[in-house]
Amino acid sequence: DQQVKQNSPSLSVQEGRISILNCDYTNSMFDYFLWYKKYPAEGPTFLISISSIKDKNEDGRFTVFLNKSAKHLSLHIVPSQPGDSAVYFCAATLPNSGNTPLVFGKGTRLSVIA
Amino acid sequence: NAGVTQTPKFRVLKTGQSMTLLCAQDMNHEYMYWYRQDPGMGLRLIHYSVGEGTTAKGEVPDGYNVSRLKKQNFLLGLESAAPSQTSVYFCASSRGTLASNQPQHFGDGTRLSIL
Question: B32 exposed, middle or buried (CB, 10 Å; 0-12, 13-18, 19+)?
Answer without folding.
Answer: buried
